[in-house]
User: Fold this.
Amino acid sequence: MNQAIPRRLPFLDELRGFLIILVCLYHLGYDLAAIFGLPMPWFFGAAVNSIRDGMTGSLMVLSGVSCHLSRSNAKRGARTFALGMLLTAVTFFVMPDQLIVFGILHYFGLCMLFYAAAKPILAQIPPFAGAVVSGILFLITRPLGQGNLWLGPLGLLRLPAALYQPKWLFWLGFPSPGFFSADYYPLLPWGFLFLLGVFLGARWRQNGYPEWFRASRVPALALAGRHTLAIYLIHQPLLLGALMLLFSFR
Assistant:
């Protein structure tokens, strides 16, 4: 273990790069099925949904880990949330049937801002305990969008319907009837994965990062991982433009 705190960790960049490529491939499939109408019913099945949640959840954990390597989480958070609001405006005017009200950029932005504000409090929590509790709370709140809490062997606990009536609690994890967002990652339950990453990062920061985190194995993936936000912002317009051109020849 090396106690020096690096500015970047190639392994994390490469993992982030691999995951953003998977996100691009997922969106390609989504565009083909949901926008261009290809008969792909399997795409919206449990298997693909699990893969989507797995790759997105991994990016959330990585974002929490990376907060310890950032110069200014407040600045990053404000910029990311602003880009999320810009994406809301663009989808509202250009593709209202694919409106993004509170998507992954909104989520990341608020999580970073929360970390910047709560860092002194979070630093008082033992990292191992914080990681375990965050993971458990994620599992408990995972079915929140369907009106339930998961209580392990006791099954599901149905929450009062009144929690889902206000139209302004969607960002927290309580979507009202009729709420729609083409991309939707509320703070509950997904914020607990971010916190899981925060506590994992705190543990590594205290004990030293493993040397294999520092070795670059696939530089191209590391490059993509250093520019995930730019890739996320441009990949959908590029995919949609290419598909529109392709389908115009049908």
